[in-house]
């Protein structure tokens, strides 16, 4: 249990923290408005930012080790699948050729 004095101290601290949070929110809001103004002056807009973010993310992904390994594995698998389909096609063609001769 808290004494009355401790409760009063905590209430005072709570009020002070709430005031600080309010002040910080106001400062953040002002900085966000200023950021928007600067971006507008520089001709930056949401679409440009999205394009830049997408381009950077795409580049980062393509240069990642995981992407390179996956790309290499899928490329190799694709080559093997192409060869397998080619062999199946050749076998089917041969079979039809044998059937025509009979």
From TrEMBL:
Signal peptide: none
Database matches in InterPro entries: TPD52 (IPR007327)
Cited Pfam families: TPD52 (PF04201)
Domain of life where this protein originates: Eukaryota
Coiled coil ranges: 7-34
The entry's keywords: Coiled coil
Family: Belongs to the TPD52 family.
Stated name of the protein: Tumor protein D53 isoform 5
Organism for this UniProt entry: Daubentonia madagascariensis (Aye-aye)
